[in-house]
Predict the structure of DUF4190 domain-containing protein.
Amino acid sequence: MPAPEVVEEPAQRNGMGTPALVLGLLAAATCWTGWAGVVLGLPAVVAGYLGARRAFRNLATDGAASLGGLVTGLVGLVVGAVLVWPTLFGTSGFGDGLTLDQCMAQSTTAREMHMCKSQHLAEFNQRYPNAAE
């Protein structure tokens, strides 16, 4: 009589849950800085997704950590991207299309005055050659 065929189960491979969770927590904790949330959040989301998918298929047992990393990484990624977006793809609009005099007249803070100076640097330097940087 032939021996029964033994079917081996695939080996349980964990390993995505812990890195996803650590990266996700770091991304969520540092997302207020902008870039840190994006840089740490993206790999946390990827690792969390891959680990959760393996856990859903019963190939891993660290599904909770993977989902936690996915969620916290997504929070860090989204908040960081929201903070970084205006820096990359927009301008504040203050002083656009104005002369140096008009811009300086509208400015109310030192930051706005600096923006006026930056937009009209050549004219500013010509008028105020001894101005401190």
